[in-house]
Design brief:
The structure is a single chain. The chain is built from 9 helices and 4 strands. A hairpin with a 2-residue loop joins strand 3 and strand 4 (about 65-70). It has about 240 residues and is α+β, with helices and mostly antiparallel strands. It has helices at about 25-35, 70-80, 90-120, 120-130, 135-155, 165-180, 195-210, 215-220, 225-235; strands at about 10, 40-45, 60-65, 65-70.
């Protein structure tokens, strides 16, 4: 029988820029926030080498002695193994909407986020500092290799083929969607947070608190409802 009280070990990128969350990874913030929503004991380990994970990406989690990667697959596996039911009471339409929003953030806004922080020169001024947590002997090499590899990856995925102005507009349109759907509610589907709030917070928080000169970052900070949303979840879970 699995020990449902055993702490889960979460491995993710370290924090940076004095942000009030435990990692500079949107997916890491999503996963840690979800664990806290469920009151699941966990330990967060800084691991800046994603190659050590089972899927070659951060974060990953040790669940019942097994290393699992991909934040969404980790969450679904924990639900199954620990007998956790979430999002009860939501309609099929709400569940479908949550999936659509999650995919928009993880597959589209994530590309914009990476471009604005690591490729756009205004963001790179501060993203450069993220690598300062690495040992001095490898810091410069990893910094340059990572940026070059990410530039190629974003071009292959699509967003990197556009002008900066077009990429900014894409990010703003994504924020329009989130703001419209959030409405006046404290959380995405009303008075209590749901699974989707962990994902939304993961991406909004690291846009809101990361010190970047990007127009996308400035646009989010001009939206009182989204800023208040980030502060609300931080106060509740961090």
């Amino acid at each position: 029988m699995n020990d449902t009280q055993a702490p889960l070990d979460v491995y993710t990128f370290g924090p940076a820029w004095d942000i009030p969350v435990l990692t500079a990874s949107p997916f890491g913030v999503k996963l840690i926030t979800w664990l806290r929503m469920q009151d699941l004991p966990h330990r967060v380990h800084v691991e800046n080498n994603p190659g050590k994970g089972p899927k070659g990406k951060c974060p990953w989690v040790m669940v019942d002695g097994q290393a699992l990667g991909d934040s969404e697959m980790v969450i679904e596996t924990i639900k199954q193994r620990r007998g956790i039911r979430t999002d009860t009471g939501l309609t099929p339409q709400q569940l479908a909407l949550a999936t659509a929003v999650r995919l928009m953030l993880e597959d589209h806004f994530h590309q914009v986020w990476e471009h604005e922080l690591f490729i756009f020169d205004g963001g790179w001024k501060r993203a450069y500092e993220f690598f300062d947590q690495l040992p001095p002997g490898v810091r410069v090499l990893v910094r340059n290799v990572a940026r070059s590899a990410l530039r190629k990856q974003l071009h292959a995925r699509g967003v990197g083929r556009h002008t900066h102005e077009q990429i900014v507009q894409m990010g703003i349109e994504d924020l329009d969607v989130i703001e419209t759907l959030l409405g006046d509610g404290p959380f995405f589907f009303g008075e209590e947070p749901r699974d989707i709030d962990a994902t939304v917070f993961g991406f909004l928080s690291l846009t809101y608190w990361t010190p970047s000169e990007s127009p996308v970052w400035a646009n989010l900070r001009s939206r009182r409802a989204l800023c208040d949303y980030c502060e609300r979840i931080r106060e509740r879970y961090y």
